[in-house]
Amino acid sequence: MNPLNDDQLNELLRQAKAEPPEVSPAFDARVMRAYQQQTGGQSVSWWRRWWGPVAWAGSLRWRNVLAGIALVLSGALADHTLLASRAVPAPRDSGSEVLERVVYKDCPAPSQGPGLTFNELQPVREIRPRVVRSMDDDQ
Amino acid sequence: MSGDQETRLLRRAAEGETEAFRVLFEAHRDAIFRLAYRLTGALDVAEDLAQECFLGAVRHPGRFDFRRGTLRQYLCGTVRNLVRQRWQASGREVPLDDDPEADPEQLSIVLPGSEGGTVAKAVQDAIAGLPELQREAVVLFEFEEMSLETIAAMSGCDTGTVKSRLHRARARLRRILAPLWNQAKARPKGSLR
Q1: CB A30 to CB B51 under 8 A?
Q2: Shortest Cα distance from A67 to chain B (angstroms)?
Q3: pLDDT, tens digit only, all 139 positions of chain A
Q4: B79 — contact with chain A (CB < 8 Å)?
Q5: Residue B150: exposed, middle, or buried by beta-carbon count in 10 A (0-12, 13-18, 19+)?
């Protein structure tokens, strides 16, 4: 038997295409049921409810940008709060002059009386260098 | 529907949003089922494969990248892989490409007029008798109207190979379907139905 030519074959294929197979009536329900079983039957995930209001933002990229901004803001807020709690109160200005002492390495440390407070450990406000030529000068 | 929209729908469906899944399913159901049927030749198997194809896509939404092709192409590729897996699992020896020993004229097709015989059924029988890779090429090109480049990308070969498979498939079909055409010519009105 002679084979068909291209036109004849195309005509047969065209007719076959015009009669596509159809799915059974129960197919849709079956697939939807299988989908529900696979996903555990949940309709909307919890985070989608949270992100629903920003769904207008559209693409994933925009949501990432928004999330980044939120993260930076919350970081800045947290940092500000922590810094505030760590702030050292300014030393109380008693009006009296803070005495400076020169401590020599070879000299015994001066005995600290029971009245020593942290006020004496404050950083110096003004450095006034003095040249000591002999032990007598320091008296 | 753009690739970006389809990606978002697929992700939402993967998160459990039934409506998103329904939209995707209804948009691609017929094409995916048709393809599965043309490749396997069995309605019930085609339904199983189409279902597995959609559920698989939802199970692994990250595998779809719209920059590499449309969701339809991705799903078609999935069906193709599922068909191959099924063949391998059943252990059937199927000639992948041209089998010089096979005589296509030995293949019997149910001609229109006999019980259950339609042109579509006869053509489907003829396609089912093709070696797998030729069948794939002819179904994707003739029925799904994919370009040679798309088929080549999906099959992992070059366009020249796809052209060659297509040429051989059509040559076989011309021989297998000759009785169908001759029967139609013999009819008074020349109708093929």
Answers
A1: yes
A2: 18
A3: 677 888 888 988 998 888 888 889 999 999 999 999 888 755 555 555 555 555 544 555 667 888 888 899 988 888 887 766 655 555 555 555 556 565 555 555 555 555 667 666 777 777 777 777 776 655 5
A4: no
A5: buried
